[in-house]
Amino acid sequence: MLQGKRILITGAGGGIGQAAAVLAAAEGAQVMIADVNKAGLEETLETMKAAGGNGQMRVTNVTSESDVEGLVADTIAAFDGLDGAYNNAGIEGDWAKTAESSLDNFNRVVSVNQTGVFLCMRAEIQAMLKAGTPGAIVNTASIAGLAGAQYMPAYVASKHGVVGLTASAAMEYARKGIRINCVCPGPIETRMLSSLASNHPRAGDALSASTAMKRLGQPVEIAQAACWLLSDRASYVTGVALPVDGGMIAGP
Ligand SMILES: NC(=O)c1ccc[n+]([C@@H]2O[C@H](COP(=O)([O-])OP(=O)(O)OC[C@H]3O[C@@H](n4cnc5c(N)ncnc54)[C@H](O)[C@@H]3O)[C@@H](O)[C@H]2O)c1
Fold it and tell me: Mutation test of ligand 1: which of 18, 64, 86, 91 has the most ligand atoms closer than 8 Å to its C-beta?
């Protein structure tokens, strides 16, 4: 599905990003994986290579303008171009109601989840425009980017921001051949979900019960949607916020 594509993936040191990197490599892409977690990146790269995939890694903090610009430059230097990017790095932040939330937590979450996506998209779009070649960008938002969720005001605000950034950039660059979409995962079994469940022991069960399918999702189920959006099979799709959520947002 991604044969010959040169793709960059952030937050690839674990969870959804790791699954996406392994799948993209298996689908034929050359993949640059980025994360703040070096050990996680090494594990992802090993898994990709064991499956016969091709990739490189770069420790990158998506909140840093120079790190992100270096990541895009290194990807182009390594693969001689950039066809696609999956901006997936994110953090959940603290668990607290709005009136009890700290400004520090709010700024930290927005900085990674929203400013990080902005910095990545800006550098990726600049590179694609400069090369004059078509491209596809996918961001990870969340169902928390489509509706409110209690105890996570900064997270919800940042993910609504990702949906807005995605739609705006999609309109701006559609005629340049750059498609920009986001996936909105429901509850997916990763470190992030375990961390949330640790705040409320029944959170995992409650989240699972709130989906129409009555189960949590697996990282590869988000990876499949992201890889499809990155591929030419999604050639007429841009500006969408695609729920991949076991029917959670479809109704009560
Ligand atoms: N797990 C879920 O239920 C769920 C639901 C909706 C959306 N999401 C989103 O999916 C994405 C992936 O999350 P996950 O569930 O795989 O969690 P995860 O914690 O396993 O993965 C997130 C990755 O992002 C990396 N990261 C964090 N801050 C970074 C930074 N500043 N720069 C670079 N990398 C950084 C982490 O090191 C980690 O490897 C996130 O954007 C998250 O908000 C997850």
Answer: 91
CA atoms within 13 A on the CB side of 249: 17
Which residue from 23, 110, 190, 196 has its CB within 8 A of the most atoms of ligand 1, so it is best to mutate? Answer: 190
Domains of the chain: 6-244 (3.40.50.720)
Ligand 1 geometric centre to CA of 175 (Å): 31
**Active-site residue flag, 173:** no
Pick the residue whose CA is nearest to atom 2 on ligand 1.
Answer: 188
Q: Convert the pLDDT of each residue in 23-49 to its tens digit.
A: 999 999 999 999 999 999 999 999 999
Instruction: Give the pLDDT score at 199.
Output: 80
Quote the ligand 1 centre to 123 CA distance (angstroms). Answer: 20
Please state the rounded mean pLDDT for residues 205-211: 91
